[in-house]
UniProtKB/TrEMBL annotation:
Function: Induces apoptosis through a caspase dependent pathway. Reduces mitochondrial membrane potential.
Major subcellular location class: mitochondrion
Keywords assigned by UniProt, alphabetized: 2Fe-2S, Apoptosis, Electron transport, FAD, Flavoprotein, Iron, Iron-sulfur, Metal-binding, Mitochondrion, Oxidoreductase, Transport
Protein name per the record: Apoptosis-inducing factor 3
One GO CC term on file: mitochondrion
Organism: Dasyornis broadbenti (rufous bristle-bird)
Length: 596
């Protein structure tokens, strides 16, 4: 049975550009807030009962109404799983209790103005709907029914949702593939990292039902790239962001091992390295960056790695076990790899041009504390020097020669000396590229070319936190948000980016959390004990706090991120006068403007 629905749209709305090629609209289109939206009929089934299987439902009394004050959260047990009960503005809400990203307990996070922020990596969820509002991660929280009877609070929940603790947003499917040939798509996404995947998912979540094609030089479907240096023996299927079935279900096509060589913006055609051409209507460029290589003799020798793929990371672990490892560059990748390999290798040596690791990012005092932690775990540093030569024996790496004259035994060398934006193929395209190779975009992730968007590590964009200064933030959380903003503006939502950068690094079982953008900081105010690796560092520029980092002080970074996201300013005098007392008492109400 074929059901056709005709939606009559006012003439002035109908004249606006539809997200469909060659002027052909999808079978079902309607307008919401002036935006074209395309829905599959299966997307919104009518159901009076949200729990279709009564056997899958549990209902339990979890507390008295007076047990929670406004602004409080409590983890409650329903017998077959837990939920997070929240009271805000006199109303109770119940959602999943674990962050879908890495499973952080949200009860230890930060509740602020209708959303809860993860204490580990900063993802934010709406307490009323469970929807994810800031990243990292792809899934939302399950939302559970709450009712009040005789002063008692009851939660009614699906057993399955209690067990999975995650919810994938409802998505449309492609219903117009027959309108396309293989060399034509409505949306083309170059790059299959976080930005590209979130863009594709957001389009489907918003009801877009035309063709979406992602292409990547990688041989794998999108995966959790930060784990390449944090968990180096992870296999591709273990770190996949979505299973293969997901892409099939929602008609998101992924072309692997496909490299775009040029973009013709006038004809709206992407030309691939093998000569294949694809026509597009909207384009997202999310190509990320390319690791820098060493410039010394022997740089192309066997057993010298830039960790770019799961295979690279796996190979390094295998070759490094009980062997001598030299890591060049105290970057995030270099330091994380050194920490991971320290327990497996016979020796780990780290070569760095600067005096202290992370000096420009975390400051000298924090950098020295981190360096001491590494030295206590058998990592040997060779600072303020560079590699002059890589020597081989029987075709394999044997020694790393430093400009200082020191010769290091080496069976494996990992290079982590930074990266450059992967935008060389755009030089003749007409797309605005700055002097460093970054794609310049506005707050809506739009380039200077209509219909062409860019996101992720390869762009500079106006950061609201720093008075709209154009910055590059090459971190996982920001790539997610870029992809979402780009997708919404492909659909003409007029959404501007305003998120607070949030990142983390993990070494020897400890994590440093960081929020804000500290580039150009002129002072660091530290509270806590650096020697004990329990501290918080506030990075200031003039009188204003522009970033914060912490170790073993959760959820202070998430708390500050919420303050900055609300547009509030933290002054240096606030840190000096109040922070230490706040840590002693656990009271951080001064940060939200409450209390004295």
């Amino acid at each position: 049975v074929e059901v056709k629905i005709e939606v009559v749209i006012p003439e002035k709305e109908r004249s606006k550009e539809e997200m469909s090629p060659n002027g052909k609209a999808s079978p079902l289109i309607y307008k919401v807030n002036g935006t074209a939206r395309h829905y599959h009929l299966e997307e919104h089934p009518i159901a009076s009962n949200p729990y279709h299987n009564p056997k899958d439902v549990v209902e339990a009394s979890v507390c008295h109404v007076k047990d929670l004050e406004n602004g409080q959260m409590r983890e409650v047990d329903l017998g077959c799983g837990k939920a997070l009960l929240i009271k805000e503005s006199g109303e109770f809400h119940a959602v999943g209790h674990k962050c879908p990203h890495y499973g952080a307990p949200l009860v230890k996070g930060v509740l602020s103005k209708g959303r809860v922020r993860c204490p580990w990596h900063g993802a934010c969820f709406n307490i009323g709907t469970g929807d994810i509002e800031d990243f990292p991660g792809l899934d939302s929280l399950p939302r559970f029914q709450v009712k009040i009877e005789k002063e008692k609070v009851y939660i009614r929940a699906s057993k399955q949702a209690l067990q999975t603790q995650r919810r994938t947003k409802m998505m449309a499917k492609c219903i117009s593939l027959s309108n396309y040939n293989l060399s034509s798509t409505n949306v083309l996404i170059i790059g299959a990292g976080a930005a590209g995947l979130v863009c594709a998912e957001t389009l489907r979540q918003e009801g877009f039902s035309d063709r979406i094609v992602m292409c990547t030089m990688d041989r794998h479907l999108p995966y959790d790239r930060p784990k390449l240096s944090k968990s180096m023996d992870s296999h591709p299927e273990q770190i996949a962001l979505r299973p293969k079935e997901f892409f099939c279900t929602y008609d998101i096509e992924v072309l692997t091992e496909m490299q775009v060589a040029a973009v013709d913006i006038k004809s709206k055609i992407a030309v691939f390295k093998d000569g294949f051409k694809m026509e597009y209507n909207k384009l997202l460029i999310a190509t990320g960056n390319t690791p820098k290589a060493l410039s010394c003799k022997g740089k192309e020798m066997e057993n010298v790695f830039n960790i770019r793929t799961p295979e690279d990371a796996n190979r390094v672990v295998k070759l490094a076990t009980s062997k001598n490892v030299v890591i060049v560059g105290a970057s995030f990748l270099g330091m994380e790899a050194a920490a991971y390999l320290a327990e497996r290798a016979h020796s780990v040596s780290l070569v760095e041009l600067e005096e202290v690791p992370f000096k420009k990012f975390f400051g000298e005092r924090v950098g020295r504390a981190v360096m001491k932690m590494f030295e206590n775990n058998r990592v040997k540093f060779y600072m303020q020097t560079e590699v002059s030569e890589l020597r081989e024996q029987e075709g394999k790496l044997k020694e790393v020669v430093l400009k200082s004259g020191k010769v290091l035994r080496a069976d494996v060398c990992v290079v982590g000396v930074g990266a450059v934006p992967a935008t060389g193929f755009l030089k003749q395209s007409g797309i605005n590229i700055d002097s460093k190779g970054f794609i310049v975009v506005n707050k809506m992730m739009q380039t200077n070319i209509p219909g062409v968007f860019a996101a992720g590590d390869a762009v500079t964009f106006p950061l609201a936190l720093r008075n709209n200064k154009k910055v590059n933030v090459p971190h996982w959380q920001m790539a997610h948000m870029h992809g979402r903003i780009a997708a919404l503006n492909m659909l003409a939502h007029g959404m501007e980016i305003s998120t607070v950068p949030y990142l983390w690094t993990a070494m020897f079982g400890k994590s440093i959390r960081y929020a804000g953008h500290g580039e150009g900081f002129d002072d660091v105010v530290i509270q806590g004990d650096l020697d004990e690796l329990k501290f918080v560092a506030f990075y200031t520029k003039s009188d204003e706090v522009v970033a914060v980092a912490s170790m073993n002080y959760d959820p202070i970074v998430s708390k500050v991120a919420e303050v900055l996201a609300a547009g509030r300013t933290i002054r240096k005098r606030d840190v000096d006068a109040v922070v230490f007392l706040s840590f002693r008492t656990g009271d951080m109400s001064w940060l939200t403007g409450k209390g004295s």
